[in-house]
Specification:
The protein is flat. The strands form four sheets. It has a six-stranded mixed sheet with strand order 5-6-7-3-8-9, with helices on both faces. About 50% of the residues lie in helices and about 20% in strands. Strand 8 and strand 9 form a beta hairpin.
C-alpha cells in the first residue's frame, strides 16, 4: 500500500496540495482527475521519487518497482526495439555482465548470469518488445529504424512501449492515448486490463477511463478525494457530494451571519461583552467549508456562420498523398449538415486528407469545389506550433478581427478561461492545454460552416473536452472529425468514413461495430504472426523451466493464506478510513459546537480517537503481513 498523509506540495510559490491524504492499494487501476495545472503530473513525479514534499509524509514499500511513461524523447541512433528494451535496466545490466563473463571465459559467472537471465525471462524480451510495438501501431519494418527517424508522436509511442515492457508493480501513465489512433487505443485498453499491478492513469479520454479504471482520484481544493468506480460513476458521486457540500456551506454561512450580527449588536454592551467574545472565538474555530463549484469554467460556442449552403464542398476524384498516393480517385459531397468521423489506423491518410482540403498539402490528383459561401475552420494536430509565441490572446484575436469592440473579444476569450491579465499575457510560457484552448478559440470566433478537426482533444483536460463536445453538438455547420476519443465521436458525428489500405469507404455501422471489427482483425493478426525462434540459450534452459514452475507453484500455495489475510486487512483498512472520513465530516457541522451539543461532540471526538487507534493497529498488522510475504517471496518466488 502507498500512503500520503497530510501532504503539502508546492510548485514554485503555488500550493498544489495542502494537508492532503491518500491511500493506494495493490492492483488498483486509478484515474487521476483535475484541471490543467492542478498537480496531476507533479503527483507522478512525487511517486517516482523525483520531488520532495514540502510537508507531510509519504510511505511506499521498498520493494516496489515503478515505471512511468516519459513525455519527451531525445533524438537517438538506437533502433526502436533496442530503445524499448533499454527501459529494462536490470536486463541490460545482466546482458553486459554476461558479455564480459563470456569474453573472460568465466564459466561460474556465466552460469550464474544465465540463471539470472532466465529469471528475468530475458530470452523472450526482444519478442515481447516487438509485440508491444506492433500493438501500438508500428510495422515490422519500423523495428530497425532509429529513434531519430520517427516523428514526435511516434517517439511518444516508443516511450509508452518502454514503460509497458519494464517490470513494475506501479505503472504511471500520463495521457498515453494522446498520440494513438483508435486501433492502438483499443489494444492498450486490453493490455492494461490484464496488467496485474497498480495503474495510475491521467487521461482526457472519458470512455477509456470508464473501461480501464475502478477508482478515481480527484484534485479538489488542494486535496485528493478518492471515488470508487469509473469516470461516469465519479461524475455522479461528485455531483451528489457537491450538493451536500453546498448545503453545509449555506448552513455555515447562515451561522456566521448570526454570529457577526450578534457581535455587532452587543460587543459594546458590558453585560453582553463576554458572550460576544465567545461567539467570536466560535467564528475563529470554524473550518471554512468551500462553496461548491459545479459549473465548468469553459462555456463556449462556435459562432454561427452568416450562411449555410446546402453543399459546402465537393471532392471530385481526389488523390491524396505525398510523393506516393495514400488513396486515389475518391469523390464525396459534403453537405451543410454532414457530420463525418474519419476512422482508420495512423498513417493511412486521415490527417493528410484534412491538410489537402485546406490547401496545406497539394492534391496529387482530382479537384475540390468549394461553395462561394463556405467558411472553413481548421484545427490541426500541431495547431499550437504555428501560433505566434510572442503574441497575446487579445493580439491574436485582433489580428483576425480588428473591428469588433474589445470587450466583446474579451468576453469570448473568457469563455475559454482566458480572463483578466492572462488575456494580455505572452503565450510562450502557456501550457500545451492553454495553447490548444486558444487555438480553438481563434477557430470558433471565425464563424466556420465547414469545420475540419484533427485530434482536437490532445492536451485538453476533461472539463475542456466536455465543453468542446457540447459546443460541437450545438454547432450548426458541416463537421469532419479525426479523433481517437470515442465519446467525442459518438456524441458529435453521425457517419463514419474508414481510410485503410488505400481505400476510402463509408462504414455502415456504429462505432461499437467498428471496434469489434478492429479487435477481431487484431486477434487474427496475432494468430497468424509466427513467433520468432527462441534464442539457442533459451532452448538450453527449457529443461530447467519445468522444475522452476513446480517450485513456483509450491511457493504460491504457501503464500495463499497470507495473501488472503492481507486482502482482508486491506478491506478492513478501507472500511476504517471511510468510517473516519464520515466521522470527520460530521465534526464540521457548526451546530455541534453549541452548548446544547457538548455531549454529542464529546462522544464523536472519543469515537474519532478510537477509530484512529484501531486504524493504526490495522496498518501495523498489514505491514507485518506484507513483510512476512516479502520474506517468503524472496526464498520461494512469486
Amino acid at each position: 500500500m502507498i500512503t500520503l498523509q497530510n501532504v503539502t506540495l508546492y510548485q514554485g510559490a503555488t500550493p498544489l496540495l495542502e494537508q492532503a491524504s491518500l491511500a493506494i492499494y495493490p492492483g488498483q487501476k486509478i484515474g487521476v482527475i483535475g484541471r490543467n495545472g492542478a498537480g496531476k503530473s507533479t503527483l507522478f513525479k512525487l511517486l517516482m521519487g523525483e520531488m520532495h514534499l514540502d510537508g507531510g509524509d509519504i510511505q511506499m514499500p521498498e520493494w516496489l518497482q515503478r515505471a512511468e511513461m516519459k513525455q519527451e524523447t531525445e533524438s537517438s541512433d538506437r533502433s526502436a526495439v533496442d530503445y524499448v528494451i533499454d527501459g529494462h535496466v536490470r536486463f541490460r545490466k545482466v546482458e553486459r555482465a554476461l558479455e564480459e563473463a563470456t569474453l573472460k571465459d568465466d564459466h561460474d559467472a556465466m552460469m550464474q548470469l544465465f540463471a539470472e537471465m532466465d529469471e528475468l525471462d530475458g530470452y523472450s524480451l526482444t519478442n515481447r518488445a516487438e509485440q508491444l510495438l506492433m500493438g501500438l501501431g508500428f510495422s515490422v519494418s519500423d523495428f530497425t529504424k532509429t529513434v531519430a527517424e520517427f516523428s514526435g508522436g511516434w517517439r511518444i509511442r516508443l516511450n509508452l512501449a518502454q514503460a509497458l515492457l519494464q517490470p513494475s508493480d506501479l505503472l504511471l501513465l500520463d495521457e498515453p492515448t494522446n498520440h494513438l489512433d483508435l486501433e492502438a487505443t483499443l489494444w492498450l485498453r486490453g493490455w492494461l486490463l490484464k496488467y496485474p499491478g497498480t495503474v495510475l492513469l491521467i487521461s482526457h479520454d472519458r470512455q477509456f477511463l470508464d473501461e480501464v479504471v475502478g477508482h478515481v482520484i480527484s484534485f479538489e481544493n488542494k486535496k485528493l478525494i478518492t471515488y470508487r468506480g469509473n469516470y461516469s460513476q465519479y461524475e455522479l458521486q461528485k455531483a451528489e457530494r457537491m450538493s451536500q457540500q453546498q448545503a453545509l456551506f449555506e448552513k455555515q454561512q447562515l451561522r456566521k451571519g448570526e454570529i457577526e450580527d450578534f457581535v455587532r449588536r452587543f460587543r459594546a454592551k458590558a453585560s453582553k461583552a463576554k458572550q460576544a467574545q465567545s461567539r467570536l472565538k466560535e467564528l475563529q474555530r470554524m473550518v471554512d467549508i468551500e462553496p461548491a463549484h459545479i459549473d465548468s469554467p469553459f462555456q463556449f460556442r462556435f459562432r454561427e456562420a452568416p450562411k449555410l449552403p446546402d453543399v459546402v464542398l465537393t471532392c471530385e476524384d481526389v488523390t491524396v498523398g505525398y510523393t506516393k498516393p495514400l488513396f486515389s480517385d475518391f469523390s464525396i459531397t459534403i453537405n451543410g449538415s454532414s457530420r463525418i468521423g474519419l476512422l482508420g489506423p495512423n498513417g493511412q491518410g486521415k490527417s493528410t486528407f484534412l491538410k489537402s482540403l485546406v490547401g496545406h498539402q497539394p492534391l496529387l490528383g482530382g479537384k475540390l469545389h468549394f461553395n462561394d459561401h463556405t467558411r472553413v475552420g481548421y484545427c490541426a494536430q500541431q495547431q499550437t506550433d504555428v501560433l505566434d509565441q510572442d503574441a497575446t490572446p487579445m493580439l491574436l484575436m485582433r489580428r483576425i478581427d480588428g473591428k469588433t469592440p474589445e470587450q466583446e473579444l474579451r468576453n469570448f476569450l473568457g469563455s475559454f478561461a482566458f480572463r483578466g491579465e492572462q488575456a494580455d499575457a505572452c503565450i510562450r510560457p502557456f501550457s500545451g492545454g492553454e495553447k490548444s484552448r486558444l487555438a480553438l478559440a481563434l477557430v470558433a470566433w471565425q464563424k466556420p460552416n465547414l469545420l475540419l478537426m484533427d485530434e482536437p482533444t490532445n492536451h485538453l483536460d476533461l472539463e475542456m473536452v466536455h465543453a468542446l463536445t457540447r459546443a460541437l453538438q450545438e454547432y450548426g455547420g458541416a463537421l469532419i472529425l479525426v479523433s481517437h476519443d470515442r465519446h467525442l465521436l459518438n456524441n458529435t458525428v453521425d457517419q463514419f468514413l474508414v481510410i485503410r489500405g488505400g481505400q476510402v469507404e463509408f462504414f455502415d455501422g456504429s462505432l461499437d461495430d467498428y471496434e469489434k471489427l478492429v479487435l477481431e482483425s487484431s486477434s487474427s493478426k496475432n494468430r497468424d504472426a509466427a513467433p520468432k525462434a527462441q534464442n539457442a540459450v533459451a532452448e538450453k534452459q527449457n529443461s530447467d523451466n519445468k522444475e522452476k514452475r513446480q517450485q513456483s507453484a509450491q511457493a504460491r500455495e504457501q503464500l495463499k493464506p497470507l495473501k488472503e489475510k492481507i486482502r482482508k486487512l486491506e478491506q478492513q483498512l478501507e472500511k476504517e478510513l471511510k468510517q473516519l472520513a464520515t466521522l470527520e465530516q460530521q465534526l464540521t457541522d457548526p451546530s455541534l459546537y453549541e452548548e446544547a451539543s457538548k455531549a454529542k461532540l464529546a462522544k464523536l471526538v472519543q469515537q474519532q480517537g478510537e477509530l484512529k487507534r484501531q486504524l493504526a493497529l490495522t496498518e501495523e498488522s498489514w505491514l507485518l503481513a506484507t513483510t512476512e510475504i516479502e520474506g517468503l517471496s524472496g526464498t520461494g518466488g512469486n
